[in-house]
Design brief:
With 750 residues, the protein is of the alpha/beta class. The chain is built from 38 helices and ten strands. The relative contact order is 0.03.
Amino acid sequence: MFEVHLEKPFRFSRGSYRMAPLIQEARSLKAGDLSQQESKNLAQTNMKVTTDKFSSERTAMESQQQRQTVTASGFYNQEKHSSSTSHIYTSSSSKGLSTSAKINATRQFHLLNGTPEEAILNTSLEDLESLSATSDVHDIERAKHKYSTYLDESIRCLQKLDQNKDAPLVLDKINDVMRKAWAVPTYGHELGYALCNALRNSGGLDLIMQNCTKSDKSLQFASAKLLEQCLTAENRAHVVEHGLDKVVNVACVCTKISNSVDHSRVGTGILEHLFKHSEETCSDVVRLGGLDALLFECRKSDVETLRHCAGALANLSLYGGAENQEAMIKRKVPMWLFPLAFHTDDNIKYYACLAITVLVANPEIEAEVLQSGTLGLVEPFVTTHNPSEFAKSNLAHAHGQSKTWLKNLVPVLSSKREEASNLAAFHFCMEAGIKKQQGNTNMFSEIGAIESLKKVASCPNAVASKYAAQALRLIGEEVPHKLSQQVPLWSVEDVEEWVKQIGFPEVSISFVESRVDGDLLLQLTEENLRDDIGLTNGIKRKRFTRELQQLKKMADYTSRDTSNINNFLQSMGLEFSIYTYSFLNAGLDKKDYLRNISEDQLLSECGISNSIHRLRIMEGIRQLENGLANGMNEDNQDKSLDVFVSYRRSNGSQLASLLKVHLQLRGFSVFIDVERLEAGKFDNNLLQSIQKAKHFLLVLTPNALERCIGDIERKDWVHREICAALSANCNIIPSSTTSSSLNSNSCRKI
């Protein structure tokens, strides 16, 4: 009997009392002189009181389970289990869900499944696996509640088990729950975060960090695996505050376990997450050996490990700040990014490209980054991939990046390097689609990305502007006036828009009044800016001239440049593009006309006041006159390149790129072609590079020479490279992964 007292009257429904019948179950098994008997008795009484606001239920359950094994000589084994009583109180919430004490479900669960650890290990995850993008919101909430409770029980169980042999199994089971939660389409991000919070709040994160220092290797690794799955922003902050050194140490230990792919994946995965916290944390992780461990793992061939490496280096580039970017340069990270960006896996390639573009956006280290050659791999990626399709290609970025991560990427949009701006715009386009699906497009205005996207969308950079405009449309923002890359064809309105974009709105009216179009813009002199436009301030004129020169480098001159004069000038350096329009206007629109030009004409007719530039252009013209025929003459050869790397594109790219890195780290200059040439299309640049090389490194992966056999016309490009190396008297060095790769018969038939 019980009483209920409330201050306000309420409707009290009739209580109920029920006694369930006695349930008996018996089983027996006999084989020879061995017999086994089991019996179960279950009796239950139930009393329940219900109102509009709550229900209270008391259950008395009496249970007895007996199992005995009998042999001819007597009892061999006998087991007995009995009983449980529980009380459950349920109140209704505003969402229509219920919150209840966990005692009843837990005790009944243990009664049916044995010990607590057995109950945890035997839990079915079918309901979690069945969740999909079309699941009801209430199903997601129920899953959150159920598995948060499950994690709470699991951690309590682990705290009691301590060094028990079942502890790694329980940790693996929790890890399985976390993986399946993250993998739920659409809701995985929300569900995974909820369970990660539950793990931290239950003391699980602290327990895992403690296990990282234990001597039991299986317990340590099981804890590290789980840790790698639950390092959300809040959990990273908790780790940094309470045990960063322990976690970095266990990650480095994992990477040092030779011949274990699983350990490498976990170690690099943890480091990838830790580099997403703060600049100070990045410095600590680098100091504790995290960056060195990552770079060593870049030599591995496992795809998932390399994905973590590429992601970690991208995160360090974004979060590390100038000091850590300098540390990356000292450790030759741009060179190690080359084999990652050269990989056949798109995910590895993408984040390696992202890392190199973030680094090159820092003017202080731009020169060192350019030396690695990795930046040249960015453009082929962004022009051959679709952001929305790429977003769906891997779970790692299917849920998108965090607000802080994206905020750190915003400055890269405005980089003077086209490659950096292009890839940043590509990523924001991908994120716009993801955030739209999540209903979280307001994030872009919160991080200040809208204005940067609008500026890029209207700039003459064709690739970056396309992706920025797509991103703006996806998040419901207005797309600004688009400027073509064909600057000579700009209208007066286009010029006015560009002048405003670069920060000179006060003189834009002067450009309109003077009717300055694209053709006139490219011919403006400093005197025009001062006397006709009204830019009397010398510093402002220099700023304007700098922007104009940047525009000239980016411009597309194909409407006037039918003989590729711009390509000729760019072969001496990107900065020589500023003279392209002067050449074209002076009548030098054919390469044949170049051979008769003098240095004085370059000064007077083309307006090239820089005497060093005039000398370099004259040298370039002389080389153009000599042509490739003279270049094949050994006496005229300039062996300025140490090594040319030849490889079969279908299966030799990774080995070739690693050889390139190791040679560069030892001070050799190396050329490796990054294009996928079609049969019969042999680039003259390749031929020139082979002629300049002292050594020809031939990467012999399996079947690398098969296409050379019977190739009388030399259509195969590896065949042509070998023949060119022989003609240029290069020192040919075969390099193979296995001895069987070097087939003497194939070599004789070339």
